[in-house]
Amino acid sequence: xxxxxxxxxxxxxxxxxxxxxxxxxxxxxxxxxxxxxxxxxxxxxxxxxxxxxxxxxxxxxxxxxxxxxxxxxxxxxxxxxxxxxxxxxxxxxxxxxxxxxxxxxxxxxxxxxxxxxxxxxxxxxxxxxxxxxxxxxxxxxxxxxxxxxxxxxxxxxxxxxxxxxxxxxxxxxxxxxxx
Length: 179
Hints:
Tetracycline Repressor, domain 2, Homeodomain-like_sf, HTH_TetR, transcription regulation
């Protein structure tokens, strides 16, 4: 197994385990066992658990934002902000949804993991910038961002995908009053 294949298997295992059980609850041996990668190769790919967590979050960020953008970009420009919440509802309805992996990671590790904090903040900055571009202004985009984050936290805690619907209604109201 080459380095890239091992890295992919490790990241697949880490994502599944970290998201389902939490970062601190999952040891490197569990990642090794789930991935089928030797412990020696694991540490060649990721010398420390923090390196693996950061790589997991970066890969999750890329895939998550790409999926959101692909969904939203299929809509006419005036329907793109509401489409964000339709996409969120679909995500909130997936089996195994446990809220935002970035918020979960930050809440679990906090300032004790500055590399993780940096990745989480980068993800949130990129999402906010994307929403600002959809909304057409920084102020409106920031309000939409707050609705997205709130809906995600509520859905993660309650298990109710309808949090996306409430936030979508609020976003549509903001859009109407902004025009």
